[in-house]
Amino acid sequence: MSDPILTLKAVHTDIAQYHILQGVDFEVPRGEVTMLLGRNGVGKTTTLKTIMGQWTAKSGEILYDGQDLKRLPVSARARAGIGFVPEDMGIFSDLTVEENMVLGATSGPLDPQRKEWLLAAFPALGTFWNSEAGNLSGGQKQMLSIARAMAEDRELYLIDEPTKGLAPAIIATMANALRELKAQGRSILLVEQNFLVAKALGDSAVVMDDGRVIWTGAMAELASNKDLQENLMGLSMEAH
Amino acid sequence: MIVRLISGDTPRSPVLTALLLLILICLAGAPFIFEGVRALDTAARICIFIVLVAGYDLLLGYTGIVSFAHTMFFGMGAYGVALASTHMGRGFDALLVGSVLGALAAIVLALLIGLFSLRVRAIFFAMITLAVASAVAVLVSQFSDITGGEDGLTYKIPRVLTSANRMGEVMGVKFTGKTLNYYLIFFSSLVLFLLLLRIVNSPFGRVLQAIRENDFRAEAIGYRVVWYRTAATCMSAATAALAGSLFAIWLRYVGPDTTLSFEIMLDILLMVVIGGMGTMYGAVLGTVLFVLAQTYLQNLMGAASHATEGLPLIPDLLDPDRWLMWLGILFVLSVYFFPTGIVGRLRGQQST
């Protein structure tokens, strides 16, 4: 396994009185796509939010490039090179697509070459460039959410269910964009329920259950073993 | 050129454009278009309150921060000019020093309040601003040796800005120092308003809007939300203080009732809501409507009451003493029919 960009060691997170993450351990190898899998409610989203700082880890270590993120505020984690795409997209509805994208580039103006690449990856954004983001369709909002996270080059992307509820054509667009990102050497930690996307993009997989990691290994191994899938997640991934 | 001057923030509605142009023309030509001291006083108040309300909208409408300390900052600017003019004597240097010191004091206090309380939930920030503003109002009343207490301070401004300075006639209208004073208020307010328009349309302004919509997302993209909120609070406070300085220069009097009272804070809130939150042009329309209603509603009602003398009940309802009730009804109706404010409504009509 290559040098990890992100390492979680015995991370525990409470939300109100609930003990959600109960000692999460895994690594995200540099330049690879790591799938974070598991049934609903096992703590995948909480894991991403804990890495980003929306929820505070009660104990454990979150090492990003050797630096413990727990000491950093949320904005510093982003500036350290982490892009986050939450499940609810979090686009700024009152602002235009352009304004959303410009906001994504925090360290200066939006690089023209990067803008060109993103508009080629997500052509719909170019069509609605000057429209209010709140008027976009669900798929377009999801594209904007991902494109905004990519508006600036980041080392690691945390992406939560980007294809949820989207039409197949948009899923293909999304998967292609993520593949290009991987080709650029960027690391991705992806929560994804769509088996085909997970199989096509994932290099490694981390499976969670009840707030713990219960299996880590190559995505290809998990994808080819239905018994393992049923054993880990209660059903075959193809059933999703 | 004009689009650059308004930072590319065009009104996006023909009716709104026409209304804004009408207001600009009326305010620019007020000494020549309207007769009498009262009309000029109303025009000056409108100019000053546009800046005050627009500065508040930077906080409430653009950043989503509820503050009750806006009149406190307004008062700091006004008292800055009053104290400087009292101690340094009449002169432009006193006006300048008072304005700058008032604005600086407002920025420092806003910075302290912001850094200590903007990390906490919005409601706590609102409560803290309310507490600080109330404390400052009490202190101003108590330290009567310095502030004049409840009586306030009366002082002299440069003679060149007073009615005693007769400068001849322009277009058949007497041009005095008071007219000059009005144009000082008008152009200063115009510059401050354009500056605010520039701020809200800058990348900084976009971050403020992003924070208003979803502060965690803005933080997760990499923006230090507390820093931006504090900066917006300081800018808003400085604007309010400068508006207060202009008010002090115009009135030549400051007192707790005219600059620090909670009633003014409520008026500002109403003007923002009526005009439309999150749009600088809303501050213009809200202020014009509100100040005109405040100044002329009683006269209008008096005339209406007189005209309906023969009818039962109606003259009583239209009695000028009931003007506050009608102002309240107008406010309720405007919120009901224009929930996004007048500007929101006008822009909405444009897009449908």
UniProtKB/TrEMBL annotation, chain A:
It comes from the Bacteria. InterPro entries: AAA+_ATPase, ABC_transporter-like_ATP-bd, ABC_transporter-like_CS, BCAA_Transport_ATP-bd_LivF, P-loop_NTPase. CDD domains: ABC_TM1139_LivF_branched. GO terms for molecular function: ATP binding; ATP hydrolysis activity; branched-chain amino acid transmembrane transporter activity. It holds the Pfam family ABC_tran. Keywords: Amino-acid transport, ATP-binding, Nucleotide-binding, Transport. The keyword Membrane does not apply. Residues 6-235 form the ABC transporter domain. SUPFAM superfamilies: P-loop containing nucleoside triphosphate hydrolases. GO terms for biological process: L-amino acid transport. The keyword Nucleotide-binding applies. Belongs to the ABC transporter superfamily. This is High-affinity branched-chain amino acid transport ATP-binding protein LivF. It comes from Pseudoruegeria aquimaris.
TrEMBL record, chain B:
GO terms for cellular component: plasma membrane. Coiled coil: none annotated. This is Leucine/isoleucine/valine transporter permease subunit. Keywords: Cell membrane, Membrane, Transmembrane, Transmembrane helix. It comes from the Bacteria. GO terms for molecular function: branched-chain amino acid transmembrane transporter activity. It is found in: Cell membrane. The chain crosses the membrane at residues 15-34, 95-116, 122-140, 180-200, 226-254, 266-292, 323-344. Its main location: membrane. It is a multi-pass membrane protein. The keyword Transmembrane helix applies. Signal peptide: none annotated. It comes from Pseudoruegeria aquimaris. The keyword Transmembrane applies.
